[in-house]
């Protein structure tokens, strides 16, 4: 199969031929239809988040169909109802193969204090797709069946891919905002463009902050229902009750705090951020808080994927052929597209 390989920090991604992976017990073999790219992939490339055992196939927003499984019976998955016709619905007709999504959370221990208290996102033994496990920048991938998520049927694979990280981890960040009605989103990229739609559907007002002069992102924000869109150097017309910082820029944390009403929360949604500059205690005073969000749980995944078609969330994607993964990532780095980018093998 064709795959894009990360071989180490500072080395260019390389297109290679690799054997199709063999699923182990409990794993599914997937034919990859689409794989979203994510800012985390840039952090991995740049060494800000480390890949312990390169070479590694990156990519953790995978949509694929099940073409095999690790118990040696390639048809087992196609025959989930056990009626022997391989379609899983018991109506005697052959139906389409199962399509699943593979998110960043690829495996957890299931035994630690975090796993056993509904916080598997914090499992110290967790393995992450496209970092500790080969990901979706390839024609095929294997994934632990327990961590695969159902893909809403109304979404094409390329439009569903950005839900898998931008959507799911963004949704976890949104939940951390509690009942906040006036919500700021700092950095209006893949995650924010999804969350703005969910937030608006929930009855919140969205205030979008972009890099100064990013008219394209500001107009996308308005199109998706933001009541205000401007630069992160501007003050919103109202004090906000919560703000989510998606951009990996530490300076935005005090900037976001400065927009908050008393009791408000700043949620940092990224896996990596540049250092947060010091700020006066008065910026935090009156029960304002700053917190981070790490990874996702499978429960976040199911909840968000149930919600997405109800809103319905429309993802805006730029697609690239698999071979152009490196160009897609550089376009992400330089903000050359709005919404999300998706690789198509
Ligand atoms: Zn991601
Ligand atoms: Zn655990």
Task: Explain this structure.
The protein is of the alpha/beta class and 345 residues long. The protein has two domains: 2-163 and 315-344, Quinone Oxidoreductase, Chain A, domain 1 (Alpha-Beta Complex); 168-292, Rossmann fold, CATH 3.40.50.720. It contains eight helices and 17 strands. It has helices at residues 39-46, 157-160, 166-175, 190-201, 215-223, 252-257, 298-307, 325-333; strands spanning 2-5, 14-17, 27-36, 62-69, 99-102, 105-107, 127-128, 140-144, 149-150, 182-186, 205-210, 228-231, 240-245, 260-268, 289-292, 317-321, 340-344. A hairpin with an 8-residue loop joins strand 1 and strand 2 (14-17). The model is unreliable at 78-94 (pLDDT under 50). One zinc ion binds at residues 38, 40, 60, 104, 165. Residues 38, 40, 60, 104, 165 line the site of one zinc ion.
Strand content: 15-25%
CATH architecture of the largest domain: Alpha-Beta Complex
Pairing-aware structural class of the strands and helices? Answer: alpha/beta
Say which molecules are bound, naming each kind only once: zinc ion
Number of helices: 8
| Biggest sheet layout | 7 strands, mixed
Query: Quick one: how many beta strands?
Result: 17
The CATH topology of the largest domain is Quinone Oxidoreductase, Chain A, domain 1
Q: What order do the helices and strands follow?
A: EEEHEEEEEEHHEHEHEEHEEHEHE
Oligomer: single chain
- Gross geometry: globular
Low-confidence stretches: 78-94
Task: Identify the notable features of this structure and list them briefly.
345 residues; alpha/beta; Quinone Oxidoreductase, Chain A, domain 1; Rossmann fold; 2 domains; seven-stranded mixed β-sheet; six-stranded parallel β-sheet; 17 strands; binds zinc ion
